[in-house]
Amino acid sequence: VVNTSKQTELLGELPFFSSGVDVPEINEEESRVYNNALISWHHPEKDKADSYVLEYRKINRDEEMLSWNETEVCGTSKMISELDNNCNYAFRVRAYKGSICSPCSRELILHTPPAPVFSFLFDEKCGYNNEHLLLNLKRDRVESRAGFNLLLSADRIQVGYYTSLDYIIGDTGIIKGKHFWAFRVEPYSYLVKVGVASSDKLQEWLRSPRDAVSPRYEQDSGHDSGSEDASFDSSQPFTLVTIGMKKFFIPKSPTSSNEPENRVLPMPTTIGIFLDYDKGKVGFYDMDHMKCLYERQVDCSHTMYPAFALMGSGGIQLEEPITAKYLEYQKDM
Hints:
InterPro entries: B30.2/SPRY, B30.2/SPRY_sf, Butyrophylin_SPRY, ConA-like_dom_sf, E3_ligase_FN3/SPRY, FN3_dom, FN3_sf, Ig-like_fold. Keywords: Coiled coil. This is E3 ubiquitin-protein ligase TRIM36-like protein. By secondary structure, the protein is mainly beta. The protein has two domains: about 110 residues, Immunoglobulins (Immunoglobulin-like, Sandwich), CATH 2.60.40; about 150 residues, SPRY domain (Jelly Rolls). It contains six helices and 24 strands. The protein has a seven-stranded antiparallel sheet, with no helix packed on it. Strand 7 and strand 8 form a beta hairpin. The radius of gyration is 25 Å and the shape is elongated.
């Protein structure tokens, strides 16, 4: 009996390319989809390839084989626009050297957001507490800090002094249609609440933040904690979920299990929010897999705004839209 396992292993590691041009490899970490799709790839013989052809097609749920769309690219990244919402797309790339073509790369599957991307920045004029919340110049990032007054009040912490959430909202409201937006919560964040809220409810929170200093006040329900479950069946003019300490907390519900192991999930790298204003429904998504983590009804009888609240140290970064200008900047880098 002859043992050829070692020889078989060595033969399996040998690369064979009939065309003589290496196969490009799509970079899954740098490729993403948001308002558009950004596809990036590596090529071992980048300097020897004259051009690339990126192919993409929608994966039909009826398993119908749709034809590939092709676009020629000189670099190693490409932005694809005008993709349908809530669909899976397959991407692959091949390299060209003169008239010689490499085999196609392994396909990358990306799922587009469930609705058009809603563009906004943090509202610098909404009346947020600028002692506790620090907004950057681009208004796409907010950080939470203790504040000087809280440090001076530290001696009273043990005699009943409670901190409250500090709110900030988007600078554009929603009055109809379906919308989706995404952001990242910094892993070090202690407590962050994100979601949607009506204009009248936000004014109440922003103007009277100290009404929430009671430990029995629950921001998710708008009621004392004792009446939280009773209010969950009715639609409210806001919905917020809690994120903190690298965890995503699903709110309590009378129709689902409230055991901690079923309500506490790992915090997604990027979180998306889908608001269907006309149907009065809001959903929270894991953007890495475009998976809905939690969904519920919300009262959209007034203008709705993206709402954010922070307590303790934390940070929120709005997802940057994929644009041609962004690609040119990255190429220059």
